[in-house]
Amino acid sequence: MLIQVVKSKIHRVKVTGAELNYIGSITIDEDLMDAANIIRGEKVQIVNNNNGERLETYAIPGPRNSGEITLNGAAARKVAKGDILILITYGTMDIEEAKTFQPNLVFPNEANNLLQ
């Protein structure tokens, strides 16, 4: 049997932008993506701590060391600049692998979204 488990998490980042007229996705500082082991195009679940919204989209890299967290396209309607988000990705694996799997958990500086 295969199950889904947390693969990566970026905990408590601040929205820096919302671009409605864009093709979709979430732009994430590439340093944060690397630290969390998130790749370009990977599905990301977004949890908005400010309004309770949950949505899924895909990741695209933003400039390194920028702290950028921008929701693009329709997802931009689900956030406001300054909202605090948790970004989560999941992996599918068998139960035995899942028992020992260690996710990449990232806790950036909430003030500027940079790695500490």
From TrEMBL:
The active site is at 25 (schiff-base intermediate with substrate), 58 (proton donor). It is found in: Cytoplasm. GO terms for molecular function: aspartate 1-decarboxylase activity. It comes from Aurantibacter aestuarii. The lineage of its organism: Bacteria, Pseudomonadati, Bacteroidota, Flavobacteriia, Flavobacteriales. Its main location: cytoplasm. One of its GO terms (cellular component) is cytosol. Its EC number is 4.1.1.11. Is synthesized initially as an inactive proenzyme, which is activated by self-cleavage at a specific serine bond to produce a beta-subunit with a hydroxyl group at its C-terminus and an alpha-subunit with a pyruvoyl group at its N-terminus. InterPro entries: Asp_de-COase-like_dom_sf, Asp_decarbox. This is Aspartate 1-decarboxylase. PANTHER family: ASPARTATE 1-DECARBOXYLASE (PTHR21012). It catalyses: L-aspartate + H(+) = beta-alanine + CO2. Pathway: Cofactor biosynthesis; (R)-pantothenate biosynthesis; beta-alanine from L-aspartate: step 1/1. One of its GO terms (biological process) is alanine biosynthetic process. Catalyzes the pyruvoyl-dependent decarboxylation of aspartate to produce beta-alanine. The keyword ATP-binding does not apply. Binds 1 pyruvoyl group covalently per subunit. Belongs to the PanD family. Keywords: Autocatalytic cleavage, Cytoplasm, Decarboxylase, Lyase, Pantothenate biosynthesis, Pyruvate, Schiff base, Zymogen. Its cofactor is pyruvate. It comes from the Bacteria. The gene is panD. Substrate binds at residues 57, 73-75. Heterooctamer of four alpha and four beta subunits. The modification Pyruvic acid (Ser) is found at residue 25.
